[in-house]
Design a protein that fits this description.
295 residues
């Protein structure tokens, strides 16, 4: 099941590019399993089920796709590890199944270049990778692209060049040196912690705001600032960045989306004392209309 929401004049749709399974300990870092296992069930290999969450923001002029999932490049071993099917439909097909014309996508945003966020940018064909959205401009941050090519032993496994280099070479991918309003009301803004150059995306219209937190807050369980994934490169910075953005989300009554939550499409943020929690917007009396959509 997916879901749709209205934010001012924008329509926001969750497009889940599949589910995958990942080590629960890695997802929750220093948080003991006795705590996180109350929120997530594990399988026999201690993995938890997660989603590749992409969001489509539809404005009067633009179809903006945020993230593109893992795509077709993970090899057999990686697919086995994540319990991914050997062959999965491409993102254009997934969009079409949900009644979204893939041709209508004219902007693609990658918050960062880990394979699970940009894998559907391109698809393998013959000897190379071709753009999945030929008429779109793609955006990510230059520092992230440069870091991807450093191939640091800590995180090189997260980068697959075929997801972005063909688009940089053909001029379709724009590498940002600063925050940018990619279309009226849609902003990409630096939010370091998960890594140095990750960006979050806000879509603001007529006094309402949607925010996609990507891996700054990968699931609603990670709304608690100290719940930080083990693979974040700068965990203390994650906590600071997260707190700042959560304050804004509370103040602005934002509708929020998360990089990998397997169940929740949209939530609002509640602050009690110094702690933050995800809550349904209706419960907080915040007037966002969200509708579940059957695929
Ligand atoms: Zn991710």
């Amino acid at each position: 099941m997916t879901a749709r929401a209205t934010v001012g004049d924008f329509e926001i749709t969750l497009v889940r590019a599949g589910f995958y399974w990942w080590d629960g300990g890695a997802m929750f870092g220093v948080v003991p399993k006795t705590l996180w296992s109350k929120r997530f069930e594990t399988d026999e290999a201690n993995r938890v089920r997660l989603g590749f969450n992409c969001y489509l923001v539809r404005t009067a002029e633009h179809g903006i796709l945020i993230e593109t999932g893992a795509g077709d490049k993970p090899d057999h071993k990686a697919r086995e590890r994540m319990k991914l099917p050997e062959t999965a439909p491409g993102l254009p097909e997934i969009l079409a199944e949900q009644g979204i014309d893939p041709e209508s996508i004219d902007i693609v945003i990658n918050t960062h270049l880990h394979f699970d966020h940009c894998g559907g940018n391109t698809f393998l064909a013959g000897s190379g990778a071709r753009p999945a959205f030929p008429r779109a401009r793609y955006y990510t941050r230059r520092g992230e692209w440069e870091h991807a090519h450093e191939r640091h032993v800590r995180d090189r496994i997260s980068y697959i060049d075929a997801n972005y280099d063909p688009l940089v070479e053909n001029g379709q991918m724009h590498l940002l040196d600063a925050d940018l309003e990619v279309a009226p009301g849609i902003e990409m803004r630096l939010a370091p912690g998960h890594n140095r150059d990750m960006m979050v995306v806000t879509a603001a219209s007529a006094g309402q705001t949607f925010c996609f937190f990507s891996d700054l807050i990968p699931t609603t369980a990670h709304v608690t600032p100290s719940w930080v994934a083990a693979f974040d490169l700068y965990p203390l910075q994650t906590i600071d960045t997260k707190r700042r953005w959560l304050e804004d989300a509370v103040r602005g009554q934002w509708l929020c989306g998360f990089g990998h939550d397997p169940d929740v499409a949209f939530a609002c943020i509640k602050k009690t004392g110094q702690s933050f929690m995800a809550a349904s917007c209706a419960e907080l009396d915040i007037a966002h209309t969200t509708t579940p959509v059957l695929p």
